[in-house]
Amino acid sequence: MVVVESVDKSVTENSTLFIISDLPESGAILASALGDEYKVVSASLCDVVQGRGISPVDTIDLILLDVTLATDDALALCRTLHGSSLTTHIPVIVLAVQHSEKYILETFSTGISDYISKPYTLAILRVRVRAQLTMIHLQKQTELASRAKSRFLANMSHEIRTPMNGILGMTRMALETDLDGKQRQLLSNVMGAAENLLDLLNNILDFSKIEAGEISLVVEEFELMLFLDDLLSGLQILAEEKGLSFSNKTVADAIPPVIKADKAKMRQILVNLLGNAIKFTNKGEVSLEVTSREVQNASFLLHFIIRDSGIGISPSERDCIFEDFSQSDSSVVRSLGGTGLGLAISRQLVELMDGSIWFESTVGQGSTFHVEIKVAVGQHPVAGESTARERSRHNNLSILLVEDNEFNQQIARFVLEKDSHNVVIAENGMEALKKLADQDFDLIFMDIQMPEIDGLAATAIIRECENGRDTAEIPQSLVRALKKRLVHSHIPIIAMTANSTKGDYQNCLDVGMNYFLSKPFLPEDVYAVLDSLDLA
Amino acid sequence: MKEIEWSNDYLLGNKLIDKQHQIFADLINKLIVAQNNNRDSHYLTRLIMEIQKYAEFHFISEENYMIDIEYPALAEHQQQHIMLIEQFSIAINSIELGEKSLDDFAHFLLNWFKQHTINKDKLIVEFLQG
User: Fold this and answer.
1) Contact A416, A422 (CB under 8 A)
2) Helix H segments across A20-121?
3) Could you read off the pLDDT of A351-390 as tens digits, one per residue?
4) Residue in B closest to A123 by C-alpha
5) Potential cystine with A521: which of A101, A337, A525, B18 (Cβ 3.0-4.6 Å)?
6) Which among B83, B85, B90 is the nearest to A29, CB-wise?
7) What angle do CA A31, B116, B89 make, to 5 degrees?
8) A36 touches chain B (CB under 8 A)
9) ipTM field
10) Best of B63, B80, B89 to disrupt the A interface by mutation (most A CBs within 10 Å)?
11) A26–B89 C-beta distance less than 8 A
């Protein structure tokens, strides 16, 4: 019993045991044998089967099912406990008079954790109970450690993204100035390297977020051809640099022009797969074919086929390529780069979209990846949408930019001033409220994480004042000034945050923000948000 | 406490079963004597284990015999054996918890032997004799 003794008794002694017994004397023995060390709750088998006397399951650490014989009732109970998501994590020890091997095996097949034959001695009972509790304890520790590591990874990626945002933004700004050829080349290289690094960070961040169940689908309508053109134009350059032919984009005629799907995730999957195809192909071609299978009138299966003439995937690697952190050859990682997360993320995203992903491959001849995603037929033709906005359709807006980070201030100001708007900067929520009380603005770009009054709190106060209500969060003189200027209006507020989980998004909407811009953002993202504003 | 005094009333007329019942009675007596002589608890525990093992052995032996002779009430008799082991289990755990004395336990065994042997096992022999 190495395991049992290696764990401090104190970690198991506050556990709660639920004793279910078909014989009162027998149940009483368990309760008095274990009652000193653990919290014990008892019920008769009959009551439990009929749904009476059940303790709240979330407080129970271990169930002892004490029966003379594990009858059908008892076995059914074991199956229910094992099958229900509420109780499946609670180990069950069955205590019964040993009858036959077949009988014990049948009892185990219901998913119980241990079986103690009667008669048993109390010392054996105690040690077996402790063994189960210890196992759960160790399991919990492992889960916590794993979660802590994922969180650390996510936090680190997030932390690194903030300065990356600065590097990208500043480099972009520098590239807009007068430069000689050499300087332009150097800065372009900085830009390229920074973008690669950001991609990598985004992959790690995405992966840990998907693992934590923090990503949900955002379905929108869009034109498939425009989407593909835009997607492929970026990859075309990569293919051309390697001298690959990348001209084949076949789209079946039967596909409706406008579809409804999670465009960003679809893009991410295709960029991953096409990027891999280009990465692992040294000569020949990479192609994309899109076909469909009709399922119903309103929806159909969109089937993407990505072919390459690259190195292929050997039979031994086939089972693991969609697993986390597995790139088939570690030397490949060194020569070609990458986290080995691309396919794992693609698989997770495809699964999130209820689709499937698979491949065929011959070593030395190439691979073909398939992705099938169920999408809805779009309702309306989408108005001609330019893929990369040079600027927005608005001019001379008066914009309040609330941002505490100097880097981010400069980048946002640069992007907005390039679009010919007047930008006023507030360093934090309080300063923003003071500025709002002093002058009229058309809209607000609001950072979320700021000292003292953060973006969420500031937004809540603004909305209260617009509705003519009072708030006790800030000095009453300021409330009066704000109400005077804001009442009966509704100023659009755009959240800017590097924390882009669905929970953050929801928090922003809940306090009354209108749009959500996730950092780091590109100028065209900002212009797209501005274009979507209906400003009087 | 008094030992079981073997009586011909306990004989059922089947050689195998009678022989095993006699050994069973001897084992119970051995425990009673040891207890009367204040033997140490370690030794007493070993005697209880001997009885437990022998009871389990005897039950399987008896069940196999019932299978051989195609005894119709096999399942019911088997159920009896299981209940007896359950009671044995409760009895020894009660001693461990200090809720019952060894004396109580010996009484329990004595009743166990007499009730089961006379009332239930007799039925097997009666079935054979038709």
Assistant:
1) no
2) 24-34, 45-49, 72-83, 101-108
3) 888 899 999 988 888 999 999 998 988 876 555 444 556 7
4) B96
5) A525
6) B90
7) 20
8) no
9) 0.86
10) B89
11) yes
Q: Are A269 and A349 in contact (CB under 8 A)?
A: yes
In this prediction, residues A41-57 reach a mean pLDDT of 80
Task: Identify the three-state secondary structure at position A408.
Answer: helix
Q: Compute CA A178 distance to the chain's CA centroid, rounded to the nearest angstrom.
A: 41
Tokens encoding B130: 């038709």
Nearest to B94 among A29, A118, A121 (CB): A29
Residues B108, B112, B113, B117, Cα dihedral to 10°: 170
Average pLDDT of chain B is 88
Q: What does each C-alpha distance from A135 to A93, A139, A142 come to in angstroms?
A: 13, 6, 11
Residue A23, pLDDT > 80, answer: yes
Q: Which two tokens stand for residue A112?
A: 């119980």
| A-B Cβ pairs (cutoff 8 Å, strict) | 41
Contacts 24+ apart (CB under 8 A), A463-472: A463/A511, A463/A512, A466/A490, A466/A491
Percent of chain A with pLDDT over 70: 90
Check: CB of residue A352 under 8 Å from CB of residue A217: yes
A475 upstream amide cis, omega within 30 of 0: no
Q: Chain-centre distance of CA A64, in angstroms?
A: 38
Whole-number average pLDDT of chain A:
84
Amino acid at the residue A138: L
CA distance A301 to A377: 10
Q: Is A423 helix (H, G, I), strand (E, B) or coil?
A: strand
Nearest CA-CA partner of A376 in A302, A264, A294, A300: A300
Q: How confident is the model at residue A336 (pLDDT cuts 50, 70, 90)?
A: very low
Distance CA A219, CA A217 (A): 6
Hey, is A183 helix, strand or coil?
A: helix
Collapsing DSSP to helix, strand or coil, B3 comes out as: coil
Length of chain A in residues, anyone? 536
A55 — phi, psi (to 5°)?
-75, 150
Chain B residues lying within 8 Å of A120, measured CB to CB: 89, 93
A228 token code pair: 């593909």
Instruction: Give the residue-averaged pLDDT of B64-72.
Output: 92
In angstroms, the separation between the Cα of residue B84 and the nearest Cα of chain A is 10
| A168 within 8 A of A197, measured Cβ to Cβ | no
Strand partners, A308: A286
Residue A295 has a pLDDT of 63
Alpha-carbon distance of A389 to A22, in angstroms, equals 74
Q: What is the pLDDT of residues A340-350, one digit of tens each?
A: 678 888 988 99
> Cβ–Cβ contacts within 10 Å for residue A91, how many?
22
Compute chain A's Rg from CA coordinates. 31
Looking at residues A130-141, what average pLDDT do you find? Answer: 91
Choose among A102, A97, A95: nearest CA to A34: A95
Task: Return the CA Rg of chain B.
Answer: 15
User: Which pLDDT does position A335 carry in this prediction?
Assistant: 45
Q: Give dist(CA A42, CA A19) in Å, integer.
A: 5
How sure is the predictor about A327, in pLDDT bands with cuts at 50, 70 and 90?
A: very low
- Report whether the peptide linkage leading into residue A119 is cis, meaning its omega lies within 30 degrees of zero: yes
Range name among A95-109, A148-162, A216-230 with the lowest pLDDT average: A148-162
